[in-house]
Design brief:
mainly alpha, single chain
């Protein structure tokens, strides 16, 4: 009886050790440099594409070439940088929260 109890405890220790190692390996770094850079560049490029697309549509509809394109390109750039600012603020809040807790 005593031997089986030791075996169970030994097995439990092995399982705990393996689960702990698996958790360390399976948790990806959410804010890795490459992922962060890709997210930021995607935010800016997407906003610029939307701005240029709307600008071209406005130019074709109102026949105001190139003013719609220029105005909406600037608005798209502004929206992209605003999105980047929001992402940076959210990440900073998460870092501050993790430091406090």
């Amino acid at each position: 009886m005593n031997n089986s109890k030791k075996q169970l405890e030994n097995l439990k220790e092995k399982i705990d050790h393996l689960q702990h190692n698996k958790e360390k390996k399976s948790v990806p770094e959410r804010n890795s440099g490459t992922g962060f850079g890709f997210k930021i560049s995607t935010e800016i490029v997407a906003a610029l594409i939307v701005g240029v697309g709307i600008g071209l549509l406005v130019d074709n509809y109102f026949n105001t070439k190139p003013f719609g394109l220029i105005i909406f390109f600037i608005l798209g750039a502004f929206a992209g940088f605003l999105n980047v600012y929001r992402v940076m603020r959210r990440i900073e809040k998460q870092k501050n929260f993790n430091i406090k807790h």
